[in-house]
Amino acid sequence: MDILLFLIPMALFLGLLGLGAFLWALRSGQFDDLDGAAQRILFDDDEPPPGDDRP
């Protein structure tokens, strides 16, 4: 029963830490462009990447 005195505050701290990380990511623009990467993969690159010697 004494372990609950340790686990409950630890769980609340970790929950608040996760919420803080989510709010930081939201404010810093991590979720702004959700469709860009999904559409970018559909287009072919015209030039091979540098250092690629294949014909």
UniProtKB/TrEMBL annotation:
Designated name of the protein: Cytochrome oxidase maturation protein, cbb3-type
UniProt cross-references to Pfam families, sorted A to Z: FixS
Stretches that traverse the bilayer: 6-26
Record keyword Transmembrane present: yes
Coiled coil: none
Origin species: Roseospirillum parvum
InterPro entries: Cyt_oxidase_maturation_cbb3
UniProt keyword list: Membrane, Transmembrane, Transmembrane helix
